[in-house]
Predict the structure.
Amino acid sequence: MLREIYQALLEFVRTFGALQLFFLRLLRHSPFVFVKRFRLVVFQVYNTGVLSIVLIVVCGGFIGAVLGLQVYSNLKRFNAEDTVGLFTAFALAKEIGPVLTALLFAGRAGTALASEIGLMKATDQLSAMEMMAVNPIPRVVVPRFLGGIIAVPILTAIFTTMGILGAHLVAVELLGVDVGAFWQQMQQTLEPSDIYEGIFKSVVFGIVASLLAVWEGYNALPTAAGVSRATTRTVVVTAISVLILDFMITASLL
Amino acid sequence: MASTKRRWRPKLSEKFIEVRNLDFCRGSRHIFKNLNLTIARGKITAIMGTSGTGKTTLLQLITRQLVPDRGQVFIDGVDIGKLNLRELYKLRRRFGVLFQNGALLTDMSVFENVAFPLREHTRLTNRLIRHVVLTKLHAVGLRGAADMMPGQLSGGMERRVALARAMVMDPDILIYDEPFVGLDPISMGVIVRLVKRMNKALGITSILVSHDVKEIMEVADCSYLISNGKVAASGSPEDMRQQLSETVRQFMHGMADGPVPFHFDAPDYEEQLLGRDEK
Amino acid sequence: MQQTRTVELGTGLFVLLGIGALFFLTTQTTGFGNYAGSDTYEVQARFENIGSLKPRSPVSMAGVTIGRVIKVEFDSDSLEAVVTFILESQYDRIPDDSDATILTAGLMGSQYMALQAGGSETYLEDGSEVLFTQSAVVLENLIGKYLFSSDSGDKK
């Protein structure tokens, strides 16, 4: 029993170390790919970012709307409906925006990246590249990694904006909160540093979500079962990592 | 490219590829034990063996996608174990590999697949690339399919495209991994003919990994039979047919039981059925 | 080639949208830049207790926001809080004997500084100090006082 726990722990640390080395490998190739293979990166920004935009816009709008509704109904008891804008914007900019965008990204784009790379491996496409003397890391993995890193902060900004507009729609247009109060309260209390915190988080989450997606894909067992396992793991591991990191970043910035 | 050529100036020895005392284990399974074989320049060499004897593994060792536990692989007299990554990639440009299922890049058209090595390694103009690619596609009879995606092709066509791609850099060595598996007789005939033509017309050294005895007899100049991690027999296919060794006879004539047992290693049948091994 | 164009166009739009969203977030949801381009002048005020007044809290006069707190320090000699705030240059005729009070917006709201006009003929200018100040009303103290007085009320 103890032995098994020890083995599992050892395996975890080993995987973690391998992930770090993989990360360094990607970083080493990144400048070259970014400068010389920018086209590939653009294509992946399209693949991961542009194709996620509908999901992000719809989810952002509705989450903002529901937040507005909940916050409103609770604040009404204190006669403080005017602060609806403040509370929703605060929550969206600092926490909900970055975290939910990262989770949605993992579900929409992360799984696509993992299964794409996993399938390329399963169908020998990566070996074929190796044999054509093309290193698949800079050709296949790094553009996807960089594309994700670029896409996530942009998606987060769009998500947060949509959320605030959604809250505005519900609170101001439907529930009759004063427009001036809604924005005034928000602007008086929210500081640029709050927005920067959200951006910082989204950059970190972008790196983590993209890294885990390409890592799982690249290390998938080259079988149908292996690829499906890799996509599942992408979502699970990304969700856990993002939430833990979110807590750590928030705690360290307070 | 010029520098590559200089570095790898052919010494014109008969042995193009030499595998010396090769050992390789995967997990606890000993796949190769002290394996020795040579592949002659300009010939078609077949490597045969039953499924699971590690034929594909051998190809990966020759191209150093895998690293042997012991022993060396020489290509043109150079120990590829001593090459760094850069030199290895340079060396690999001299290889063309046809994978078991083609391994075309699924997100590109047929044309782009064939053009891929050119775009990655050369600075040819688009016009020149177009010219080269269409020539190669014409050679495999698929010029008309240039704009199709790999998903739209049949298995045989996929393999022909992959062959065009393997040839596009004008390699010195062409490696075919199970080129005949799962093809209808017509496609099979086409591939056999193509393999022969590549070798005869361009003098490309070819390595053919397969267990289709009939097709091998037709194309190969020389063949090796691998069994139990060793070379069990070698020689021209005709010689092989005449050989009396049990292993060779079993393989060449497709007998179910023999030195290669029908049953995989298992505990005693009666014991297991009666449940005596559960303790 | 047509496909490449679509990808590039889509990506370009996507990035522009992101920049737009970011611009919206930094300028519309925060007080960022409300006073950034405009001319301001700095004034100080000393308080015994500032409650929860913070940098960026608004400074208002007659209910209109005319400035913003930029710095809150503690003077260890006089044991007082020194609040530095900026006022917009267009409001340059505020009497220098005006008094500053720290108030709370609503029951639970954040605190802000309110100026009440005095009657002097000289006006506040850059570097001057508001001399008459009134400390923040600390809610806990109020509640304490209330409990205390109701206690004594019972005894009577």
Q: What stands out?
A: The interface with chain A takes residues 7-8, 10-11, 13-15, 17-18, 21-22, 24-26, 28-32, 34, 56-58, 106-110 of chain C (CB under 8 Å). Residues 1-30 of chain C form one domain. Chain C has two domains: 1-30, 40-144.
